[in-house]
């Protein structure tokens, strides 16, 4: 069983987190469909004030007594923020919800030399976990992926992070054009030599609206077929298990106790506030689960915050049926699985799972049901979309 999140007075199961979306990047990666934008200049003071104001808006809505389990600065590239902005956001979050020594504060960073120079400043501002977007450990593939750092910069940034942060993670992308199993195994071994407790390993997917999608449609970008992608996934599991960093979630591997506590809030279907352009949130208010989302376009979000205190669209009530489905979809991503009683509670007293499908999938080695806990096996997590389709009908 993975560790529980920090205590949260008045909590719903799963914990309570704060997500801060910084929407700006130095350049747009060709595979990225996140809400990220390139701008020549950013008025840092203006953006800092807007982030704080939108946090105040949501804090006024959250029941008294909630205590944060985690804070996550994502993007975009939040390491382009000045450390002073990070410190101001954390100070305001502490005022609203409390940031104790046990609260995980993660910041996503790129390993370019200019951003790595700020690592100590982010640590002094209150960040205690760094997540770096390395993506590849050779210059040729970094160029294909549109990354602006070199492999040498990546390794130097990892070494710098080790000296500043007790907890840090980095990402790699596999199933890249032309990648072989042997080459990926060598790269993973190199990564494991540098990793401390956590690695995020994502299979390259071709998302609509990206440059890679256009190239793929034209036939100018060829990625590994389904069989090779499966072989790359299996090789990943073998090496990481041998290294003592098994998958605790579909794409995330950690030594015991090094799991991302913030992401566990999502996967355990906890509550979280989302601030910044395009940020999503889930809040339990007056017994109802509320979905929040803010306007994606940075300038429109900024104008709305300055005029009205928030860039959020109208709340959406998550129905009991949707809650059950969402909790199942998130929970089965985890190696620990999900509790059927929790699903039933989220779904308003009705079990959202087709137990006949559970039996069939269990016979095929894709699920296990141990008492009240439903878990996708390693094979089931590899085929999770199909498993969920069968369970939810």
Task: Summarize the model shown.
With 393 residues, the chain is α/β, with parallel strands linked by helices. It is built from 16 helices and 17 strands. 41% of the residues lie in helices and 20% in strands.
Radius of gyration: 21 Å
Instruction: Give the end-to-end Cα distance, rounded to a whole number of Å.
Output: 29 Å
Which strand order spans the largest sheet, edge to edge or round the barrel?
A: 9-10-8-7-6-5-4-1-11
* Major β-sheet annotation: 9 strands, mixed
Number of domains: 2
- CATH topology-level fold name of the largest domain: TIM Barrel
Shape: globular
Helix content: 40-55%
What percent strand?
15-25%
Number of helices: 16
Structural class: alpha/beta
What's the CATH H-level homologous superfamily of the largest domain? Aldolase class I
* DSSP, total strands: 17
| Unreliably modeled segments | 1-7
| CATH architecture title of the largest domain | Alpha-Beta Barrel
Seen as an oligomer or otherwise, the chain set is single chain
């Amino acid at each position: 069983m993975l560790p529980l999140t920090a205590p949260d007075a008045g909590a719903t199961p799963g914990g309570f987190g704060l997500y801060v979306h910084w929407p700006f990047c130095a350049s747009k990666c060709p595979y990225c469909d996140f809400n990220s934008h390139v701008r020549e200049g950013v008025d840092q003071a203006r953006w800092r004030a807007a982030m704080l104001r939108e946090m105040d808006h949501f804090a006024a809505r959250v029941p008294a007594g909630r205590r944060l389990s985690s804070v996550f600065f994502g993007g975009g590239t939040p390491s382009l923020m000045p450390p002073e902005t990070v410190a101001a956001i954390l100070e305001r979050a502490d005022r609203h919800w409390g940031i104790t020594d046990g609260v995980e504060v993660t910041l996503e960073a790129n390993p370019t030399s200019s951003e790595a120079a700020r690592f100590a400043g982010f640590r002094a501002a209150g960040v205690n976990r760094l997540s770096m977007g390395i993506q590849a450990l050779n210059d040729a593939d970094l160029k294909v992926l549109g990354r602006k750092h070199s492999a040498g910069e990546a390794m130097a940034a990892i070494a710098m992070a080790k000296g500043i942060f007790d907890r840090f993670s980095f990402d790699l992308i596999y199933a890249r054009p032309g990648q072989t199993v042997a080459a990926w195994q060598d790269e993973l071994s190199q990564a494991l030599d540098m990793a401390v407790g956590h690695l995020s390993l994502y299979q390259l997917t071709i998302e609509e609206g990206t440059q890679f999608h256009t190239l793929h449609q034209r036939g100018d970008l060829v990625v590994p077929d389904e069989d090779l992608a499966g072989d790359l996934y299996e090789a990943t599991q073998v090496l990481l298990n041998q290294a003592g960093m098994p998958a605790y979630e579909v794409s995330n591997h950690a030594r015991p106790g090094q799991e991302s506590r913030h992401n566990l809030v999502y996967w355990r279907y906890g509550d979280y506030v989302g601030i910044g352009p395009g940020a999503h949130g889930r809040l339990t208010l007056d017994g109802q689960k509320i979905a929040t989302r803010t306007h994606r376009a940075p300038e429109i979000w900024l104008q709305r915050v300055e005029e009205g205190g928030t860039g959020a669209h109208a709340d959406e009530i998550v129905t009991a049926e949707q809650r059950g489905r969402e909790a199942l979809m998130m929970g089965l991503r985890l190696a620990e699985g999900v509790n059927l009683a929790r699903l039933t509670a989220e779904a308003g007293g009705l079990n959202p799972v087709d137990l006949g499908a559970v039996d069939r999938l269990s016979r095929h080695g894709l699920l296990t049901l141990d008492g009240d806990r439903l878990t996708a096996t390693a094979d089931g997590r590899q085929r999770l979309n199909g498993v969920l389709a069968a369970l939810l009908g």
